[in-house]
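Appendix B, example 12.
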Amino acid sequence: MTVTKKKNGSILLVNVEGRVDTVTAPQFESEIKSDLNGVTELVLDFSQLTYISSAGLRVLLLLQKVMNKQGSMKIVGANETVKEIFDVTGFCDILTIE
């Protein structure tokens, strides 16, 4: 998994490439949480994400809770496989997915 971050004022754009699973989820969480101070809009670009496990979904819930207090979070570019995971788990009702 590769995480690339770009901050533009109070907007944080995070590109995630590869898999977010049990092994990589802790790294995914720490890399994003370390840059959330002062961020009012978190954009997760999943166009290069191939898979997300329940451990990754837990991180998304945690990030959503943080961003509910300080702004908004959205996911963009998710492929059909990842969108299906969001649908099956009900995350499509919880998260903003574009």
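The helical segments are 25-33, 54-70, 80-89, 91-94. The chain has a mean pLDDT of 96.
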